[in-house]
Amino acid sequence: MFCQPFLFGTVGAAVQFKDIDVTSLGPGIGVIFIGLTCRWIGAFLAMMEPKYTVKEKAFVAFGWIPKATVQAALGGVTIAEARKTGDPIFIKNGKEMLTMAVFAICITAPLGAILIATLGKRWLKYDEEFDTTKNMGEQVEDKEVTQELVTVNNNSVIDVEAPPADNSSKKDESALNQVAPQ
């Protein structure tokens, strides 16, 4: 995650727009969309569990569209290896590969982000049965429990003496509201 911005930045900076061959741009973008279609179908088929709805399967498939890390890495490697050979044809092909890798990133990243943001709200529904956060923060009613972990605003966890189940004074409640030391 830390290196991805550097990877995308260096790959994008290596593309010289004056050197782009316009005749290879159309077929290259066509290959990108063929690859996206195959990736979408593969992700959809991978979700062929009866427990998922068709919309959930399609959403996961759309979620796999903005994966361009491999393209960014391979685009840079291809041009580097082509330059090592010194062959002008290899260098030309390496530049085209790098250009298509950058176009794959520029096409898939925003397309995937838009599809995930819009389709997630429309196609996915909240399923209370599988909500793992539903009971977070509720006090345990067991009299045997004397301590509990409390998460405070800065996401640190502290041990706090839990009030007895039959005695809930304001003094004991104030212990639950204290902030963990940094």
Q: How would you portray this structure in words?
A:
The chain has 182 residues and is mainly alpha-helical. It has two domains: 122 residues, no CATH class; 44 residues, no CATH class. 58% of the residues lie in helices and 5% in strands. Strands 1-2 form a two-stranded antiparallel sheet.
Biggest sheet details: 2 strands, antiparallel
Q: Could you estimate the helical fraction of the residues in percent?
A: 55-70%
Protein structure class = mainly alpha
Shape annotation: elongated
Beta content: 5-15%
**Oligomeric state:** single chain
Order of helices and strands: HHHHHEEH
Q: How many beta strands in the DSSP annotation?
A: 2
Low-confidence stretches: 142-154, 156-160, 167-177
Keywords, please?
182 residues, 2 domains, 58% helix
Short description:
By secondary structure, the chain is mainly alpha-helical.
List the helices and strands and how they pair.
Blueprint: H1 4-13, H2 22-46, H3 54-63, H4 69-85, H5 88-123, E1 147-151, E2 157-161, H6 170-176
Helix pairs in contact: 1-4, 2-3, 2-5, 3-5, 4-5
